[in-house]
Amino acid sequence: MKKHFKNRKGFTLIELVVVLAITSIVLAAIGGIMVFGNNIVKNTNYKFDEHTMALLLEQKIKNTVQNSTSLTIYSSPSPLPTSSGYLYFDTTPSGGTANAALIINPKSGAPEIAFQKGYFKGYTVTVAFSAVPITPATTPPSYLPNVLHVTISIYNNANANDNYTLNTDIPINNIGNGFTSASITDTTGGNQNGGALIGFTSYVSP
Known about the structure:
Elements: H1 13-65, E1 70-74, E2 85-90, E3 101-105, E4 112-114, E5 123-133, E6 143-156, E7 163-171, E8 185-186, E9 197-201
Parallel strand pairs: 1-8
Antiparallel strand pairs: 1-9, 2-3, 2-9, 3-4, 5-6, 6-7
């Protein structure tokens, strides 16, 4: 018995090529969206890490110096002051930049190394200290006697365009209130880039 097949056509070569081309375009678009989405997630994670690092540094610095009875801003952590406590961010410690850390010595014990063991690995961190100018500006410039300005910059070593900067003012409660110093001392000469180290005298309860 003969079977007759009518109107049953296969795909032509042109139709197959067209389908394959459309499929390739769709897959490429989906792949592009996935890569784009992955980059957004990665960049968001970077920003979160940078923001968190800056806030933790800010809080540690504030807790250390806000009740000081004297405070001096120095351009460089070399040499370290011997007559007071000191605080600075060490960008080139032994072991390389992966071990960068906040160094605090209140002069009443051994130096504290905060946020060590690679906490800032993959990032370059700078911390600068400066006095806060009185506004409107005066000539020569005048500064608030008891407010420390801190600039914390976090740079992603894997992406030069990815960075975060935190600027904050910290009132130094005991300066100008009958204690040792009437105002913050700035030995940088008002350098706009600020100083890299602060010397401070901690408040001791009577």
